[in-house]
Amino acid sequence: MGKPLMIQEADERRIESLKRRLRIERKVDVLRAGMDLLEREAGRRERIRRWMRAAALVAPSSREVNAEFRAHSRVKRH
């Protein structure tokens, strides 16, 4: 068996409300569902941070390549 968790009255009411709304039987399942969502959001934020760092690393070379293509483009923009 796990360890007991001390929960404030207001949080207890929120958990009970979610239990009814989501038709979940046990409080622990409500908490697990919340933790699952938080873990997914944390993973999403980490991926975005990695993508942004990678994009920043390749941005200078991307600009160079794009400038080279524009110089030889048949479509002239004014």
Describe the structure.
This protein has one domain. It contains 2 helices and no strands. The protein has helices at 9-22, 27-71.
Task: Return the average pLDDT rounded to an integer.
Answer: 90
* Order of SSEs: HH
Question: Strand share of the residues?
Answer: under 5%
- Tally of extended strands? 0
The biggest sheet, with number of strands, parallel, antiparallel or mixed sense and barrel status, is: none
Shape descriptor: rod-shaped
Name the helicity range.
over 70%
Please tell me how large the radius of gyration is.
Answer: 25 Å
Number of domains: 1
Structural class: mainly alpha
Low-pLDDT sequence parts: none
N- to C-terminal separation?
Answer: 72 Å
What is the count of helical runs? 2
Offer a quick outline of the entry.
Helix content is 76%, strand content 0%.
Features:
0% strand; single chain; 2 helices; mainly alpha; rod-shaped
Q: What topology emerges from the helices and strands here?
A:
Blueprint lengths: L8 H14 L4 H45 L7
